[in-house]
Design brief:
Number of helices: 22
Helix content: 55-70%
Distance between the termini: 15 Å
Shape: globular
CATH class of the largest domain: Mainly Alpha
CATH superfamily of the largest domain: MFS general substrate transporter like domains
Largest sheet: 3 strands, mixed
CATH architecture of the largest domain: Up-down Bundle
Strand content: under 5%
């Protein structure tokens, strides 16, 4: 194997161990393993559902406790708080071990849920959502890291499929659950239900997750990348502020949007400059070596694009059902089930195929090709499209996007040393979450722009005023109540504008999917290891399982699993 230098001058050399091959190890997994997998699945579902469960319930919530002017922050404080700490969480999991950061994240999520559920005013609710978000951000990162610690690289897609597929289901069920609880005037249970659901995985983790912990707080705390996090966290908050409030609180041309965006981008660039030149050893939150090979870079880019596509369809297919087909919020969730069930099924299928054949490039190519086809079929959706047609279209799209949930992370990790699992996974989780934000932001800009440009075709001035400047998105949830009383001609015109605007969104998703397909060509093939080498593996007896992890020697040489020469 060719020895390839890393950006810091170190060399990647094959590391040979006497670890038994997968074929020589006992078949099956201990009960603790499956209990942890179930616990992680619970956490993936409940943390993801809290992103989409709030918007349908917001009108009811603000009517009861006030905060109509702060509704953006009620919805998005969770997004901010869950996104910005993710690289820090990856570093903390390396310093203190996996167990304690998982426990702290769950506890924060539970505490935030209790505060939000009992809120009597908007400020308390926003504070609760922010605490929830910090916990959820930790959960997003740690469920992937723990999965990677439990199984070899070759099998990670399979188990990531079991766990992360539930996050895809949550994205579809969240609006339905939120809408139903709001209609029943029980919106507080949106938050209170999190407490007993999270208690189950918390107890499981405390009792059965027996892995290595840190070397003591006084020693470990010195390893934190303080400067990097001081630069990174405010920069991402600034950038998210511009993305989330642009076009809603202020126009995109306002200095109040442009300035945060510019500061955020400049700070983010400064952060990576600091990580490359001014951090040493394992102190970097996001070490530059994560981007030192084209396979990992392509994987991160595909992660972003697949997240954009997933969130775009997740937000705008319900709008199609509500405004064009004329369903209620609850029924639109039922109509969206082909996507949610498809994501669950095809995420698992993708992981199984990766584990069986060990070839990620064909899976990625097929995934983005199916996404291209799915979005292309969405462009022909109309009022009279048969149910069987739009259900089939969703399944095609879900077949593509579902498999990306489980097969991209192993491809990112294959060209990196095992010692970088935590930091590489944290970056993967951050980019995926960041992609979700862009999936809503860019698609919404396109949707609103096309809608505003075609408002002239709606003859009713009153209806035009309701739908202008972003009103069309929120109005869709009321469409089923308005259709029966509205002027048939005016509503028919409005429906036509909805179809036209959604078609522009579908073309956007098709273009993003095509870009993902092109990125597959950047990947190189590496054999996925069938051996598990980690400091943090699960032990049956409560002790850290003996291992021979990849480590950085004093001469700057990174020792890792032997990899064959890449082939195109």
């Amino acid at each position: 194997m060719a020895v390839e230098p890393t950006p810091d001058g170190s060399r990647i050399e094959p590391y040979m161990s006497d670890t038994q091959d997968r074929e020589d190890s006992p078949s099956g997994h201990p009960p603790q393993f499956w209990l942890i997998i179930v616990a992680l699945s619970f956490l993936a579902f409940i943390s993801a559902v809290d992103v989409t469960i709030i918007p349908p319930a917001l009108p009811t919530i603000t009517q009861e406790i006030g905060g109509s002017k702060q509704y953006v922050w009620i919805a998005n404080s969770f997004v901010f708080a869950s996104t910005v700490p993710q690289p820090l969480v990856g570093q903390l999991s390396n310093i203190f071990g996996r167990k304690y950061p998982v426990v702290v994240s769950i506890v924060l999520f539970i505490v935030g849920s209790g505060i939000a559920g009992g809120a009597k005013n908007a400020a308390t609710l926003i504070a609760g959502r922010a605490i929830q978000g910090v916990g959820a951000g930790g959960i997003y990162v740690l469920i992937d890291i723990v999965c990677c610690d439990l199984v070899p690289l070759r099998d990670r897609g399979k188990y990531l499929g079991i766990v992360n597929a539930w996050a895809g289901v949550a994205a579809g069920l969240g609006p339905v659950i939120g809408g139903l609880l709001a209609q029943a005037n029980n919106w507080r249970w949106i938050f209170f239900l999190n407490i007993p659901i999270c208690a189950l995985p918390l107890i499981t983790i405390l009792l059965f997750m027996k892995v290595k912990t840190g070397d003591g707080i006084s020693h470990s705390i010195k390893k934190l990348d303080y400067l990097g996090n001081i630069i990174f966290i405010p920069s991402i908050i600034s950038l998210l502020f511009g993305l989330v409030t642009g076009g809603i609180d202020y126009p995109w041309s306002s200095w109040r949007i442009i300035l945060p965006l510019v500061l955020g981008i400049a700070g983010w660039i400064t952060f990576h400059f600091q990580q490359h030149f001014f951090t040493y050893g394992n102190n970097a939150s996001v070490p530059s070596r994560l981007f030192s090979n084209r396979t990992s870079v392509a994987g991160y880019a595909m992660t972003f694009l697949s997240a954009v596509c997933l969130q775009t369809s997740g937000f705008f297919l319900p709008i199609y059902f509500q405004a064009v087909v004329g369903t209620t919020v609850a029924d639109s969730g039922i109509y969206f089930l082909p996507t949610t069930i498809g994501l669950l099924f095809f995420a698992a299928i993708g992981g199984v195929l990766l584990s069986k054949f060990g070839a990620y490039r064909p899976i990625h190519a097929a995934s983005f090709a199916l996404s291209v086809i799915g979005y292309g079929l969405f462009t022909i959706l109309g009022q009279r499209t048969p149910k069987v047609a739009w259900a089939f279209f969703q399944l095609i799209s879900a077949a593509g996007l579902g498999s990306t949930l489980t097969t991209i992370l192993p491809a990112i990790l294959v060209a990196l040393p095992e010692s970088d699992v935590a930091s590489a996974t944290a970056v993967f989780s951050f980019i995926k979450t960041f992609g979700f934000t862009w999936g809503v932001t860019i698609a919404s800009i396109i949707f609103n722009a096309v809608f505003n440009n075609n408002l002239y075709s709606i003859s009713s001035p009153a209806l035009r005023d309701q739908l202008a400047d972003g009103g069309a998105y929120s109005f869709a949830s009321q469409a089923s109540n308005v259709i029966d009383t509205a002027d048939d001609t005016a509503w028919g015109e409005a429906r036509g504008v909805y179809i036209m605007s959604l078609k522009a969104v579908w073309w956007f998703g098709l273009g993003i999917s095509a870009a993902g397909l092109l990125l597959v060509g950047m990947e190189r093939h590496f054999e996925l290891s069938t051996e598990l080498k980690t400091e943090y593996g699960l032990s049956n007896d409560g002790q850290a399982r003996p291992s021979e992890p990849n480590e950085v020697k004093g001469n700057g040489t990174v020792h890792c699993d032997p990899l064959p020469a890449p082939s195109l």
